[in-house]
Amino acid sequence: MQPYELSIAAAADAIRARKLSPVELVDSVLDRLGQVESYLQAYVTVTAEEARRAAREAERDVAAGHLRGPLHGIPMGLKDLIDVAGVATTASSRVRTGHRAKADSTVAARLAAAGAVLLGKTHTHEFAYGLTTPQTRNAWDRDRVAGGSSGGSAVAVAAGAATFALGTDTGGSIRVPSALNAVVGLKPTYGLVPRHGVTSLSWSLDHVGPITRTVEDAALVLSALAGHDPRDPASLITSGPDYRPGGATELTGLRIGVPRNYYFDHVDPEVEAAVRHATAELESLGAQLVEVEIPMTRYIQATQWGLMVPEATAYHERTVRAVPDLYQADVRILLEAGELMPAGDYLRAQRSRTLMQQAWAHLLEEVDVIAAPTVPVTAVKADDEAITWPDGTVEGVSDAYVRLSAPANITGVPSLSVPVGRDTTGLPIGMQLIGRPLGEPELLRVGHAYEQTRPARPLAAV
């Protein structure tokens, strides 16, 4: 096994035991990045020399006995909405040409303090306003979408061009590309991870979280990220636990909610079969499967778009009027449409969210975790604009990909996407585990237990 194939946990153990140096690890990942980047296009910017310099510094620290923790010397990518001092934050948009961040975002500063090594900035759908990341190719099939908007981060991790990465998630943008590329994606509880220094899409729906190869790795990164920051008005004051799951796979007494409505409607049969097989695996580990009714489903799409569209338009108000031609057409149209939305619609969406949060709180008293598909269909062809379901219903690709992930953004509850198999063409399938607010330890425990029942997943053979 090459160093670039290692998980965070395995690499950290090897570094701690002096069997692997940070320089060897970073060099291996940079070599891999160089091999795959020309056709995957996961990165906007690669900071190779800075990464090698940081790796040498980490190597000296480790040799001196100053190991900072499991992320020390581990190479990562950051979605290009996340500020790093002196590095461009382009948001994959011409609007940001020439931009340089003046200071680190909170998450970048925390990862740097933990000793993680920045490889570069990964592509996003322009300003995170989309679910495909069109400039990046799927790690398993270059003719298909990467998913978005954190497509570059997911593809980099899936291909071995980063040991882990950060993404952002406003309607599924961590979990969707994670599901489509066979990696693990965690959208934490709203406010658990600070967003100071992260370009916003929709401030009341935005989250920052890790994309990794294993659930244990997601826990390691979350432990470094979580914690209050007064510069983010939504930041929670919590005493964060150690999120790393134990080795046990026993789930006796845990109640897993399996939706009888919404989450399995208009879902590809192979996706449904894989997710139901995964929930059966959880049952075999001792969990109790409980059928649940998802509340207020008819309002989910209207609430998601009713919140996101006006908030995004407000954020971009000046630039979309000053330089509209610098935006890609799909994003510009959405931003201009937001100017036509009445204030009353936004207020009704806020009201709907409050009622939905209350209803989900009652639902999550009945079960500990909900298990459902992350996305209803595997990665579509890059030029596909819509999906036609067997009953004749036609659904836009972005609408399909956001449909099952949006409820966790609206309600602010945590959601973890884990790979649960492939379809007959070899494309990855993801299952999301949804929990109570601040229920990350339970989600990670369940996801890790499931993962232990499966063989180790290989990297994408690109």
From TrEMBL:
Domain Amidase, first and last residues per copy: 24-444
Protein name: Amidase
Pfam families: Amidase
Top-level taxonomy: Bacteria, Bacillati, Actinomycetota, Actinomycetes, Kitasatosporales
InterPro entries: Amidase, Amidase_CS, Amidase_dom, AS_sf
